Amino acid sequence: MTQATDKDRVLIFDTTLRDGEQSPGATMTHAEKLEIAGLLDEMGVDIIEAGFPIASEGDFKAVSEIAQNSKNSVICGLARAQFPDIDRCWEAVKNAAQPRIHTFIGTSPLHRAIPNLTQDQMAERIHETVTHARNLCDNVQWSPMDATRTEWDYLARVVEIAIKAGATTINIPDTVGYTAPAESADLIKRLIAEVPGAEDVVFATHCHNDLGMATANSLAAVAGGARQIECTINGLGERAGNTALEEVVMALRVRHDIMPWTTGVDTTKIMNISRRVATVSGFPVQFNKAIVGKNAFAHESGIHQDGMLKNVETFEIMRPADVGLTESNLVMGKHSGRAALRDKLKNLGFEVGDNQLKDVFVRFKELADRKKEVYDEDLIALMRVGEDPENDRLKITDLKVVCGMHGPQTAELTMIIDGAPQSTTQFGDGPVDATFNAVKALFPHSARLQLYQVHAVTEGTDAQATVSVRMEEDGRVVTGQSADTDTVVASAKAYVNALNRLIVRREKSAPGEDKREISYKDVS
Ligand code: KIV
Ligand code: ZN
Q: Is the pTM value of this prediction over 0.85?
């Protein structure tokens, strides 16, 4: 059980599977959610917010299963300030060894106006719903959404009501990333000093990153007295995202001299989970992102390299191994066998079953034939390719493109669609455009391309390209990824990967049934 009373211990509340998964296109499959929850549990995260059970059948099932499987972490579900939400949330979390209900309502003037509740009506709603949650579960978290833009008097009043009704954790969200560090610290300090009963609960901080201050604001809130930080892996989350777990945890570790608080997180597991979240969410980590970016420990300039050779501390404030980063080394060649591949993947954090190994091994051999040197990053990219090729309705079997200065840029594409091979030749503004036109000609659809992104996995002209695409159709947002030494082939496969996911989503949810239709404002 987490030691909420230990004054120097900061609880880490991870909301990758709820707030993180809410970012458009970051939807994870059921199996992926379970896997990420397992990794969070293993790395010592105190509380996992596993989802929003009333939002969809899928969320409910994921939260329930995570609740049943978790070994160490408290498992929490989100609920709006309504009895049916809270009941559904309790249904989902009740089998956890340590369940928690997290209920919230928007308390700022802008948020009160949406359900059209007066201050008194909302106060009454808070009293009723927190009491109801507490009658079901003895671990209840309450959040006044948009707290940082709520009038001080009203905020203090509703926090007191929630504490009296039985909330055990009071979370103060900076929902729109509006606050700044000094203000963040003062707000928590003042609530603790002035609200009756504040000494009996844990105060939490939940910061969004719209102005790039989420991590600083979270740490400032801890200095003000908060003892729970809400965060996500890689800072995943709507708009500019949330406080990044890896940033707060490493900041508290590296600057323990001025921030004397500890967490229970095993930092050596950070890199692995960061990579898995990037893979399953389809949101690659920017190269220069603190702690987990590809360049976070890269030293390129001559002066830096010279200093590093003399003493690593000249340019490094933490060791790569502290976050679980092993040297990127030449791993294998075309003569390596299955056992070696399985072993290497395990070291990189991928547990693969026999069937998956068979598939990855074929792709590894193809890659090793084309690319002299296969690095850790290449294998990680291989693991990103579409998760269930057996069940894919669309498969590319051949692609030839004509590109160059004098066009016309042309794509000759053959795909198997529902078991039947079909071919076409199409033109476009460049080889990728021609290829996407060819896919669309063979499989007409109305999905709109929202994002097309290419990254080189390693250095060199034979580097693999990883391509991510995001598409939207009738409010359903899907992402697709692929990797190949040929950028156009990677693009085509990523596009088709997204379409395969879209087909599954079409079958699972009618337009308007997607969980994003569940609105935070719907509290009447
Ligand atoms: O940002 C926010 O206010 C939230 C609440 C639901 C806690 O995510
Ligand atoms: Zn949030």
A: no
